[in-house]
Amino acid sequence: MTNESFQPQARVVDEYESPVSGYQLLMMLRIENAPGKLGLITTAIGESGGDIGAVDIHEAHHDYMVRELRVFCRDVGHAREIVGQVDALEGVDVQRASDRTFQLHRGGKIEIANKVNIRTNAELSHVYTPGVARVSMMVHDEPDSVWALTARRNTVAVVTDGTAVLGLGDIGPEAAMPVMEGKCMLFKSFGEIDAWPICLDTKDPDRIVDIVEAIAPTFGGILLEDISAPRCFDIEDRLVEKLDIPVFHDDQHGTAVVVLAALINSLKIVDKKPEDLKVVVLGVGASGIACARIMLNYGVRDIIGFDRTGAVYPGRENLNPAKEWFAEHTNPDGFSGDLTQAMRGADMFLGLSGPRMLSPEQVDSMAGDSIVLALSNPEPEIMPELITGKARVIATGRSDYPNQVNNVLCFPGLFRGAFDAGAKRITEEMKLVAAHAIAEVIPDDQLNEEYILPSVFNEDVVRKVAAAVAEEARRTGNVREGGSRVFV
Question: Which candidate in 37, 183, 278, 424 is catalytic?
């Protein structure tokens, strides 16, 4: 038996783990071809607490069969237990046991593919020397032609320093690679955009800015990802100022756009206006500040934010520049109490913090027809089943509950639209129209408490977001002018 694919995994509390999204074990079994053997195997798995998802035959012989079983488990320890139980059965040999997730990552998840064939010397002479020299001189003489004659116009650099990866924290650039590869896959799958991970072995904001500025001529856009606050604010601001291509910190603005889309549709259900809302934000980090900014631009006036110290208000100690901005633009009454007090009469709760930070009693104290967006992953601030009937609209960041707030609803379409228009930057107005476009994918007559956001697989999302963003870029003149004047 080989089990090299088993690896330590981040702890997930059992009762919050869905069988479908949890640990998937793949086992290749050589089974004696005798009546009842498969039944013994399935019984052993069931008695060990596993859930069989699929059974496939790989080989069939007179005296033995080779089958592959997919089994849903709680975690790696549970998987090891199941493998041991099955391997102990007479006439059964576990030839291979592996983690489905690790198998999908083996060798990486992305690759480069050619758009043109190289089959003859003639084709080689066109795509490389000597023909390519004429193209290079065209770009030299007419710099704008780079957008027509290279892949730049449809490429994104996904840049991280690995300091704030998912909920794992500062795990470094190498460990961030699987996440960044996944982000690149999403760009390609949903937006038909070519993206590549750039994982930097430095935490120095000056070096990060210099490196990204230096590689920018290769890319049409920059997506900043999983860079810790408050450094991420400074890095983004400086790159936006220096570069004439879209720069977008997804942890901030992607989350904010989808949160606003959820709010837009939720307000249609609860029949409230943004200017009348009292909103409590738990987690005033990069995404919390961006969410507050976009909600203020939408018309929300009363936002009270909490960080690890407590309520954020003007003059409070321990505020970095980003939180000082938050304090100056939110909490109009200078509230300085605790979360329980703030939740009384609140219309909306937005959680961007950590698990089990909110109680059913706090939700029960909110205003009627309340909205709860508990977005901590993989375990939200409060589980939906604990507040069913207490809040009118409930959303999480998880795919196994209704109303998933997922950044994939935003960034592929946003960059697609920016690229289609030749936009030089992502503006606040482009984020607003993106949020409205996401919300409008769901017709008003289909909206309900469990359907405020479309599926990430709804093809209308990218199309509508891209069209709205491109139109806004063109409307405001936020586009590259002209292009090469020479025939290409």
Answer: 183
